[in-house]
Amino acid sequence: MSETVAFLGLGHMGGPMAVNLVKAGYQVLGFDVVPAAVEAAAAQGVPVVGSATEAAAQASIVLTMFPSGKHLLDAYRGGLLAAAQPGSLFLDCSTINVDEAREAAQLAVDAGHRAADAPVSGGVVGAEAGTLTFMVGALAEEFEAIAPLLEVMGKRAVHCGGNGAGQAAKICNNMLLGVTMIAASEAFVLGEKLGLEHQALYDVISTASGQCWAVTTNCPVPGPVPGSPANRDYQPGFAGALMSKDLKLAVSALQSAGITAELGSLASQIYDRFVDEGGAGRDFSGIITDIRQKSAE
C-alpha cells in the first residue's frame, strides 16, 4: 500500500485495528500515550514512534481512536494538525459528541486538511476479526478515499452523510442497543423466575418477534451463544463504561434536539448505576447480574 497511516490510540479497539492494517500491507506508524498499549501493539507487529506529531508528519492519513471529544480537540489544537503534511486526511474513529466531531472536522479543513468521522460498532471481537461496521460522516470524495482502509478493518462501511453524520448514526444505534440489552436481560431474568431454561427461551426469542442482536449475538446468559461474553464471566466485549459513555452522548443529543425519549434516558441512568456499582470493566450484557440482584432484594 502506498499510503502511510498514523494510527493514534492503540487501546483495546485501536490496537487490533492497527494490526489488521499492518497485515494488509499498509505502512502504519502507531502511537499511544499509554506505554502498555504501545508495547502490546509493537509486539503484534505495529511499528511505533515516539509521539503523535512524529507519526502525523510522515503520514497521508491520520487515524485517531481516542476516549473522548476533548482528547481529540486538544490533540488537533495542540499541534497535530500543524505537524501533518498539507492535505492529509484526518479520520477519527472515536465515539464523540456530534458537535465535537463537526468542530474537529472544521479545524482540520481550516488547517488545509480533509476530514472524516467513522465511529465503529462491533466491539473488541470485531476489531480483532476485522468485522467492524463503520458509520461514516464525510464528503463523498473523502468516503471513497478511506473506503479501502475501512474494508480492511471492517465488514461494512456506511456513508451516513456529511461530517458528524457518522457520530449521529453511532449514538442512535447504541441508544437502541442499550435499551434492547436491558430488555433482553429483564426477559431472561423473568424467564428464570417462571422456570424457563435459558436455551428454551433463547430458541423462542431468536426465531420470534423479540429477535434482536442483544439476544442472538451478545446473549446475556451463558450457553445459547457460545461466543457471547456471558460465557467468560462478562469480560468485554463492549464494556459497561463505554455503553454508559455512549448513552450520555445520546441523552445530550436528545436534549439538544428537543426529543422526548424516555427509554433512552432511563437506559442511561441504569448503565450509570451499573458502572458506579462495579460494572465499568464488565461487558455491558453484565447488566443482567444487576437486574438479578435487585430482583432478589
From TrEMBL:
Top-level enzyme category: oxidoreductase
Active-site feature positions: K170
Molecular functions (GO terms): 3-hydroxyisobutyrate dehydrogenase activity; NAD binding; NADP binding
Highest taxon in the source lineage: Bacteria
GO biological process terms on file: L-valine catabolic process
Domain 3-hydroxyisobutyrate dehydrogenase-like NAD-binding: 164-288
Enzyme Commission (EC) number: 1.1.1.31
The UniProt record lists the keyword Cytoplasm: no
Catalytic activities: 3-hydroxy-2-methylpropanoate + NAD(+) = 2-methyl-3-oxopropanoate + NADH + H(+)
Protein name: 3-hydroxyisobutyrate dehydrogenase
